[in-house]
Amino acid sequence: MKQMKPLHTTLRLSILLLVLTCSMGVTAQTSKTAQNNGLPVSLPSTNKGDTITEREFADKVYDVAVENPHFPGGNEALCDWLSKNIHYPPVCDYIQGRVVITFYVEPDGSLSDIEVVRKVDPLLDEEALRVVKAMPKWIPAKQNNQPIRAKYTLPITFRTE
Hints:
Layout: H1 7-36, H2 74-85, E1 97-105, E2 111-118, H3 122-133, E3 141-143, E4 146-148, E5 150-158
Antiparallel strand pairs: 1-2, 1-5, 3-4
């Protein structure tokens, strides 16, 4: 008589298969980048007679750069700055959650187009916006040793203790 596998073994095998499948996709993307050695790839353009790498984009925005933008002093300094400057609205003392803010770090380090992309409560969202707008200039992202405009996503967690 054939013995059935326990449910937890089948579940473990399914999760393992899912993880392996996902990691193969990540490896495939990583190896493609490694094959280019960071050099621009000449891609066909819809404009006749040129390629994307031949054109200069003054207004290009980067999601990923050789050196990503960062708060002066790094992530630890950012966390310290946020903890000192965030004021939990008293009427929200029972509300918790993570507000997600996106903004652009300009080549001069200033922040622009600051907006809430994941809301929790109007008062917490407003406080997260206020504190990001009050931040000092950041260290801009760099591409080819030149400061560039880059998008940054910052989660701000509000939690009562």
